[in-house]
Amino acid sequence: MRRRVSDNTLWFWIFVGPFAAGLALFTYVPLLWSVYLSFFDAHNTVSPTDFVGFDNYTAMLRDGAFTSSLGTFAVFSLFIVPATYALALGLALMVNRIRRFQAFFRSVFFLPAACSYVVAALIWKMSIFNGVRFGLANTVLGWFGADQTAWLSTTHPPWYWLVIVTVRLWLQAGFYMILFLAGLQRISPRLYEAAAVDGARPGWQVFRHITFPQLRTTSIAVVLLLVINAFQAFDEFYNLLSDARGYPPYARPPLVYLYYTALGQGQNLGMGSAGAVILALIIAVVTVFQARWFGLGRKEAD
Amino acid sequence: MTISRRTLLGTGAALGLLTACGSNTGRDKGSSPGGKVTLDHWYHQYGEAGTEAAVRRYAAAYDKAKVSVQWRPGNYDQQTAAALLTSSGPDVFEVNGPTLDQIQGGQVADLTALFDGVKDDFNPAVLAPKTYDGKIWGVPQVVDTQFLYYRKSLLKDAGVQPPATLDELVDAAKALTRNKVKGLFLGNDGGAGVLGGTPLYAAGLSLVTADGRVGFDDPAAARTLGKLHQLYADKSLLLGAPSDWSDPSAFLQGLTAMQWSGLWALPAVQKALGDDFGVLPFPKDGPNGKPSVPVGAYAAAVSTRSKHQVEAKAYVKWLWVERTDFQEDFALSYGFHIPARLSLAKKAAKLRQGAAADAVTYATDHGYAQPLLWTPTLQTAYQDALNRIVKDGASPDSELKSVIRKTKDELQRVKKS
Where in the sequence is the signal peptide annotated (chain B) (predicted)? Predict the structure, then answer.
């Protein structure tokens, strides 16, 4: 008996050990190191000696470019979260309704999720939304006699948002549609039968009072994931808008800005780390509020 | 929980596996069998065919050490900056710098001694930004420059003379803009990135003065930069082209009548258009203005983290100071660059005819090199401001005011350290 116990501990460590060590080595150590760096003047070094206290933090919060990048992020998530939510839910409702070819449509809408952000961003930039007359969007506009538009270079009106938002919608709507489909299939048909008996009209009334409330847990998960994904926005922004000379001062989310501060030629790792810590705190606060607001972790029956 | 000897061994083995993976970086470091040291030499990826084979040939010809060349595609500046923080970085590397922070941070070795007796043969304009505190921190390899290409036939059709002032450039670009052809291509961002300080120099100003003060604290700066917005507002600029300013494709495909690009594009333009093109410097603006073109040079530098600094310096001296035959081959046989050595530049027959000769004249007479004190932080701040001036029509006065403030702070910071 005794032997069995120590065997279990042994196997526990054999299986968990490498991952725990990896987690510590590649996640916790860099994380704490970054916090450490944020209190130093760390230009081009990861072992700085020049302690500056909270100077990096005050400089970062006073930096107009950083605060405007937070604004950019806010605009982006206000746009992308509801849009993806609505589109994914709409797709799921439609795919769930059709009786034939369901598997086909499910796969078709899900396929873009398998495409890489970088590849999709390049296709959007080079062939669909390039600024010259033979770009796809400009060709279509040309049929109606419209002038060519430089989608990614025009700031008035900010057409670049159209490119950024559509590429992400295309990429991620299918994935969330699958989550919603799973949620829809878990709703008991008896609820719909009972609603029909009670005289609920199919359509909006049933959706409003049965389907939508029953999808509550799925919705919470989807919104949480969408917000976190929006915070991580980097790939498509970087690939759509950066060039050899850097990045334009608009549509610059926090991660892109910090990337240029800390890892660009400036290599200001102290400032970059301070920015990263500020961003992490914001994410933590937002997530806590979100969890409170949605009542995450509360029992279903409450 | 008790930790038995076996558990300890188990975790130890697991960690051992991890570290074993970590050290396998696929490169051999240190001494090679013949007792010679191995030097890692990094280059950024050049677009021209044959360059990579050439640098490998030079490296193989060195007999005092084994040189392993790494040809690195992608974001080279970021890669070297990160690699220099560790001891597994290169021994010798080419760099679009070295930057002031790299010099002050002690990341690159002092190479002054390599220039004994030959210092005067290096192009002074590009040697100046490699010099700090009276010491030289990199050996310039080749000189690159940028200028304006224009299509003679298109200008003639529109009845436009090659522009000699910025105002004429604005008018010409407008006159040349047709339904399917734009007048001018300054890069997909509207010019803020590639032009940088060039318009300021064309107005007779500078980024940082020789004595280390702000060089554009002058009303003329705002006036000149404001004219760049006119180009954008007139819709004369080509934007969103599939390839950016560094590639002549947009010019060759007839998407634009004029394009700002580099000397490296000249062979391709010549091949496609024959005589139907000319080159111009960035035109002057205002009463104190003079035409301007940027010049710059990649330099060979030695990392102070290298375990073989002495050997690395000897190798750099051999390749970039002594072997003028290789330097000539590197500058002129593949792409199109001006040799960094004045004696070689004078000899080069390829640079003495047609548009190439004009370009070399512009680089010699009107070339300015970005000052070392113009740090990446300032570049970003200035480029952002210029971007807002050009595209958003932001007030050049107030935008420049905040850049000037930032420049003063940054110059203070770098002088302190």
Answer: none
Q: Which residues of A touch B260 (CB under 8 A)?
A: none
Q: Please indicate whether, in this complex, the C-beta atoms of B193 and A266 are within 8 angstroms of each other.
A: no
How is residue B166 written in tokens?
């910025």
Q: What pLDDT is stored for residue B119 in this prediction?
A: 93
Residue ranges per structural domain of chain A: 1-37, 53-294
Beta carbons of A44 and B102 less than 8 Å apart: yes
Question: Going by DSSP bridges, is the β-strand pair B367-369/B293-302 parallel, antiparallel, or unpaired?
Answer: parallel
User: What is the set of domains in chain B, with CATH numbers?
Assistant: 33-144+295-369 (3.40.190.10), 146-294+372-416 (3.40.190.10)
DSSP H helical ranges for A124-234: 136-143, 160-185, 189-197, 204-206, 212-214, 216-231
Interface contact flag, A14 B384, Cβ < 8 Å: no
Measured in whole angstroms, the distance separating CA B330 from the mean position of its chain's CA atoms is: 17
CB contact A287 to B (< 8 Å) = no
List the single residue in B7, B78, B97 with the smallest CB-CB distance to A9: B7
Q: What is the DSSP letter of B98?
A: -
Measured CA to CA, the distance from residue B320 to residue B334 in angstroms comes to 17
Do A266 and B7 count as a contact with CB atoms less than 8 A apart?
no
Of A135, A153, A260, the CB nearest to B188: A153
**Average pLDDT of every residue of chain B:** 88
pLDDT per position as a tens digit, B255-265: 999 999 999 88
Question: Is B81 close to A44, i.e. CB distance below 8 A?
Answer: yes
**Total number of residues shown for chain A:** 302
Cα atoms found within 13 Å of the Cα of residue A138, Cβ hemisphere only:
22
Question: What is the predicted ipTM?
Answer: 0.73
User: A85 with A223: CB under 8 angstroms?
Assistant: yes
Dist. CA B355–CA B362, nearest whole Å: 11
In chain B, which residues have their Cβ closer than 8 Å to the Cβ of A13?
A: 7, 10-11
* Tokens, residue A99: 């009786």
**CATH 1.10.3720.10 applies to domain A53-294:** yes
Q: Which long-range contacts (CB under 8 A, 24 or more apart) does A24-31 make?
A: A25/B18
| Residue pLDDT, tens place only, B263-319 | 988 988 999 999 999 999 999 999 999 999 999 999 999 999 999 999 999 999 999
What is the tens place of the pLDDT at every residue in B103-152?
A: 988 999 999 999 999 999 999 889 999 999 899 999 999 999 999 999 99
At residue B76, what are phi and psi to the nearest 5 degrees? -65, -45
User: How does DSSP classify residue A260?
Assistant: I
Torsion of CA A22, A27, A32, A34, to 10 degrees: 130
Please state whether beta strands B256-262 and B293-302 pair in parallel, antiparallel, or not at all (unpaired): unpaired
Which of B186, B336, B165 has its CA nearest to residue B255?
B186
CA distance, residue A248 to nearest chain B CA (Å)? 6
Is A188 buried (19+), middle (13-18) or exposed (0-12) by CB count in 10 A? exposed
